[in-house]
Amino acid sequence: MRNRLIVLVVSLLCVVAPNVSGQTAALPAGVTRMASVEGITEYRLANGLRVLLFPDPSKPIITVNIVYQVGSRHEDYGETGMAHLIEHLMSYGSTRHPDAKREQSDRGARRNATTWVDRTNYFEVFPASEQNLEWALDLESDRMLNAAVRKDILDSQMSVVRNELEIGENNPARVLRQRLFSTAFLWHNYGKSTIGATPDVERVPIERLQAFYRRYYRPDNAVLIVAGRFAEEQVDSLQDTHTRLRRPLISAVRSPGIHTTVPTSHCSL
């Protein structure tokens, strides 16, 4: 069954502004309006997804940003760098969008992603249009559960990640910051580098990476933000169906076992 988020989320865009009678349009089933502050309105979907809508007609663009509440602090022993590796693999699309980078380029979208200790986010900024908005929401909904977390893509990205590791190791400011964090958070994952340790990154089994992705990439662990120029008349045609992503049955718990090795010390006293 194709689980789609587009129609449900885009239908929310229609309730941001009052209708012609001055009354707020009825919310779709399974959608709860939480709060509205300074033009930003929060909704909660039945599957746990939080949605923040910020219409701004003064902008000629739309930003779609999805934040997953997973970062390096969620990694277990021997899993350092997993959250960052997933960020790299997510850029390579999903079942319905096998060439996401090309699609983003073709639509003139500016894209990026970042990983930190508590969260990982992905965003696209693109020219405002109904078609572009539909495409971006479909991309993010499909990547949430059907991203290309595969061994061949992992292997192709390993040289890129190694390069990022080496850049950090040769950056005095980053080295100092890492030493400060590791001292301040001696027994907490905040003290680890987000990019991970080289032995963990280079030896990570794809099965463990896939399990990490399935555990944390889910609607009840994400916040979707849509901001920019969107209007009610642009999205009326997208309300023909009302399906939504399902909440996975697995819970967000750590996986057992380790795959890393402790380097042998060759120093002598």
Largest sheet: 7 strands, mixed
Structural class: alpha+beta
Mean pLDDT: 82
Count of strand segments: 7
Features:
35% helix, 9 helices, seven-stranded mixed β-sheet, 269 residues, alpha+beta
Describe the structure.
- This protein has 269 residues and is of the alpha+beta class.
- It is built from nine helices and seven strands.
- Strands 1-2-3-7-4-6-5 form a seven-stranded mixed sheet, covered by helices on one side.
- A hairpin with a 4-residue loop joins strand 5 and strand 6.
- Helix 1 crosses helix 4.
- It is globular and about 55 Å long.
- About 8% of the residues have low confidence.
Brief sketch in words of this structure:
By secondary structure, the protein is an alpha+beta fold.
Give the secondary structure arrangement, pairings included.
Layout: H1 6-13, E1 31-37, E2 40-45, E3 50-55, E4 61-68, H2 82-90, H3 100-106, E5 110-115, E6 120-127, H4 130-146, H5 151-169, H6 172-184, H7 198-203, H8 206-216, E7 222-228, H9 232-235
Parallel strand pairs: 3-7
Antiparallel strand pairs: 1-2, 2-3, 4-6, 4-7, 5-6
